[in-house]
Amino acid sequence: MKKLGRGEFAKYHALGNDYIVVDLQSSGLRLTPSRVRALCDRHTGIGSDGILALMAAKRGADTFSVRILNPDGSEAEKSGNGLRILARFLHDFGYTPRHSFSIVTAGGVAAAALQITRGRVQSIRIGMGVPTFVSAEIPVRGPVREVIREALRVDHRVLEITCVSVGNPHCVVFVPELDAEEMRRLGPLIEGHRNFPNRTNVQFARVRSRRRIDILIWERGAGETLASGSSASAVAAAAFRLGLAGRDVTIRMPGGAVAINIDPRGELHLTGDAQPVCRGRLLI
Questions:
Q1: What's the CATH code of the domain at 163?
Q2: What residues make up the domain containing 64?
Q3: Which of 65, 111, 177, 183 has the highest count of CB atoms within 10 angstroms of its CB?
Q4: Where a domain ends, among 129, 164, 181?
Q5: 125 and 141 in one domain?
Q6: Distance of alpha carbon 88 from its chain centroid, rounded?
Q7: Predicted confidence (pLDDT) at residue 284 exceeds the cutoff of 80
């Protein structure tokens, strides 16, 4: 397919987590918070869990830059699903002939690699960086420390949390059983808790074995989400740090599963797929 033209967009999903992709250089689109909210609205807009805004890009380049916008108009530092989608988009629309390249986000530079067999993209691997549990780097309010198995009072309950940044903030709650209603009730309260100055993504996680963890996700700025690559990465990092899982783990979400590898240097590698949905032209 040829590159996007003026007013055009593409839509992709990764395990049900869907994004609108626009090329800011060619689209002529000005993405104000109100316009982002309008485009992401599932009743009066295109409908999506966010927008990936590709910055200036040259054909054949090996480094690209993207802004990741939440459906509430706020900006995210990083998105594992969004990065897989963008990598697939760059290949599909002829922005690069390379199978590996770098993507610059507000949360750091991510290496992307496409596994292609007989011209078809089979999977996409994203380097999610080295996680940090240090409060000032996530951020979490209070003295500088690693936020490991801390108590957090929410809605008259005390939860044990582990917080981690993989370029964006996460709060992981390990539980004996997953409860979707509890996630929907507590998720927004944790997201906006005063301990998190930039708000936070929230995961409720059940460890099935050292190689499999099931999670439910409340995403900052988006709410309940079928899948999230950065959330899966954060849970894998937290589980490994707590001795609950090994270096290779499958994270299962309502939308599907991804594989996470933690290499000897501590860097997280996320592998999963991304699928095209449609290409269209905006009438606004």
A1: 3.10.310.10
A2: 8-129
A3: 183
A4: 129
A5: no
A6: 15
A7: no
Q: Are 81 and 227 in contact (CB under 8 A)?
A: yes
Within a domain: residue 74? yes
Domain annotation covers residue 238? yes
Mean pLDDT of the chain: 95
Q: How far apart are the first and last CA of the chain?
A: 24
The pLDDT, as a whole number, for residue 119 is 85
Contacts of 179 (CB under 8 A, 6+ apart): 204
Any domain includes 278: no
pLDDT at 270: 98
d(CA 237, CA 75): 23
Based on the fold, state whether residues 144 and 182 are members of the same structural domain.
yes
pLDDT, one tens digit per residue, over 158-204 is: 999 999 999 999 999 999 999 999 999 999 999 999 999 999 999 99
Q: Phi and psi for 113 in degrees, rounded to 5?
A: -140, 130
Q: How far is residue 114's CA from residue 166's CA, in Å, rounded to a whole number?
A: 21
How many Å apart are CA 199 and CA 141, to the nearest integer? 11
Q: In the chain, how many domains are there? A: 2
Position 283 scores a pLDDT of: 84
125 and 16 in one domain? yes
Same domain, 49 and 80: yes
